[in-house]
Structure formats: structure tokens, C-alpha cells
Amino acid sequence: MGLLSEKTRRVIALFAGVMLLAGGFAFPAHAQSQAQFRIGYQKYGTLVLLKAQGTLEKRLAPHKIEVKWTEFPAGPVMLEGLNVGSIDLGQVGETPPIFAQAAGADLVYVGFEPPEPEGEAIVVKKDSAIKTVAELKGKKVALNKGSNVHYLLVKQLEKAGLRYLDIDVSFLPPADARAAFERGSVDAWVIWDPFLAAAQKQLGARVLADGKGAVNNTSFYLASRAYAEKNPKVIDVVLEELARLDEWARNNRKDVAALLGSYIGIEKSIAELSVSHNSYGVKPIDDTVLEQQQQIADTFFDLKLIPKAVKVRDAVLKKR
Q1: Are the CB atoms for 78 and 88 separated by under 8 Å?
Q2: For 40, which of 54, 90, 234, 294 could close a Cys bridge (C-beta 3.0–4.6 Å)?
Q3: Does the domain formed by 6-115+218-315 have CATH 3.90.1570.10?
Q4: How many Å apart are CA 230 and CA 106, to the nearest integer?
Q5: Where exactly are the structural domains of the chain?
Q6: Is pLDDT above 50 for 164?
């Protein structure tokens, strides 16, 4: 990927400082056996690129740590996996951590990517009579419950003067939602990339509204609290690798699209459209992004979509 920029070196140094405060730099001691670092990923985001390039494995191999990758169809089920101990770290959108915290998951935020408001949208069929979000009143809308697009829908309805209860929500995972969308069983679909780009390119889906002016669509790296507290150096290494990868990705989008397309098996045009919506530049968690997450948590509690109020700051590693 070439030499790192001064900005990326500063980011890596900042991560190192955060991890030092969070508990030191020692790798876990493993006698003769090889430990596993288990990562959950989806068909989007920087983690899938990291898996494809294999650089994390090279960094951790000298420390007898094997990287195990598990694919998930969406963020909520990934965080369920994190909660039950089947993975140690994953990348999800802004909403899944709120639902996970409300369900009692003991997770921590360890980093985030810049906003990607065009990377999710409410779409309708190309010949749909629906032209505005306001016209969704009384209509059936499909989405994955607790995913990043759940908040997009809430905020776009609010902008259009509608309540969440004014529409008929159908909770479906991406594959089932696409099938329902194609059949005409739902009037609109709220979805993220690369499924969004695929719907646009393959189905001619028309974007009714994306995240611009409504939501940030920030993605987060989360780890189980137990793993992050015991293995801060491993978390630090993965964030360093993500910082290097992000710098490369920002400056080589055609290469990113080619890698993504071949690795997850999507057409070149779909990969290029999806990558055009992406932002790259992993950062440590800060007060601003925590406040934005708290707004989401408060919104979902007010709508009674989560069973209890959530204090987002409880999901941050305490400094020692």
C-alpha cells in the first residue's frame, strides 16, 4: 500500500495511546497452542477488504494468533454472535449496537468509520407511483429490524411529517426483503450497500431518499468487553491494519471495487457504485460520535422499539 501519510501515522499513534490507557500492550500468553481472534464481517465495509488482503493474519501469526472469519447477513445477528461469544469483534452500522445494548450485550465501541449517508436508502420499484417519502403513508415497507436503515426510515418519515406508526413495517433480512420487493409484496425497501447498489443496477430500483440530510450512517467496530479488556494489543493491531487499508482504499477506489467484486461475487458496476458511496478513515471513539449514538438510542426508546433506555457511554472501555 506504500508509505503511510502523516495523518494515518497520527491515527495509529492515537489508537496506541488509547489502548495503552485501556490496559497495556502485552499480547496474550499462549504456551504451545494457537489462540483464535474471531472476527465477524458482512458484505460491506473495510473488514471484508481486510479479510481479502490477509495482512492481519501476517501481523498476528508471529504471536501464535489465528484469525477466524465468520460472515453474517446483517449487523443485528452479528452482535448476537458477539454477545454469545462466537466472535470477538465485528463491524456494524450505527443502530445495531443500540439494540444490542438494550438486550444486555456486554460490548464496547473500539473505533468508527466516517459517515456514509449515501450508502443506504429507501427505494421503490422503477415504475412505482410513489414519488415522495410522504406518499409511504399506509404503505408496506420492508427492512431489517435493528439495522442501520431502521434509523434512516424513522428520520426520513419524520422529515416528511409522518409517524413511524403511519406505515406498515415488514421486518425481513436482505435476501427475503429483495424477493418481496421484486414480487411487489412490499411498496418500498430500506436497504444498505452493496444490496442497495445491486437493487439499483439489477432491478432499476429508484431511490426515494437516502441518508443525506437525515442520518450519518456511521459504521462502528465493536468488540466483546471481555476480549477487549484482556487483549488490548490485538484490538490495537487490527485498528492499525484498518487505518493502513483505509488510506489505500481512499486513493484506489477502482482497485477496491475490483477486489470487493471478485471477493464477494458481485458485478463490477455494482461494486463500483457501492464503493463510490463509501468513506474510509477509521478513528478512535470520541464524544461527538457517542452523543450521536445517544440520540439514536433515545429515539428508539421513545418509539418503544427497544425495551429499556440505553446509556451509550456504558459501552466504552474505561481508562485505567
Answers
A1: no
A2: 90
A3: no
A4: 14
A5: 6-115+218-315, 117-210
A6: yes
Q: What is the pLDDT of residues 29-51, one digit of tens each?
A: 544 467 999 999 998 889 999 99
**How far does Cα 266 stand from its chain's mean position?**
19
Strands of 89-92's sheet in order across: 65-71, 35-41, 89-92, 220-224, 107-112
Q: Is 292 in contact with 151 (CB distance < 8 Å)?
A: no
User: What is the pairing mode between strands 107-112 and 220-224?
Assistant: antiparallel
Average pLDDT for 135-160: 96
Assigned CATH for 117-210: 3.40.190.10
6-115+218-315 against 117-210: fold identical: yes
Of 16, 23, 15, 17, the C-alpha closest to 225 is: 23
d(CA 209, CA 118): 9
Other C-beta atoms closer than 10 Å to the C-beta of 240 total 22
CA distance 232 to 200: 41
Cβ atoms of 88 and 39 closer than 8 Å: yes
Burial 197-211 (b: 16+ CB within 10 A, else e): bbbbbeeebbebbbb
- Amino acid at position 25, single letter: F
C-alpha cell of residue 195: 444490496
User: Would you say 65 and 234 are in contact if contact means Cβ atoms under 8 Å apart?
Assistant: yes
The number of helices, as runs of H, and strands, as runs of E, in the chain is 13, 10
Mean pLDDT of the chain: 90
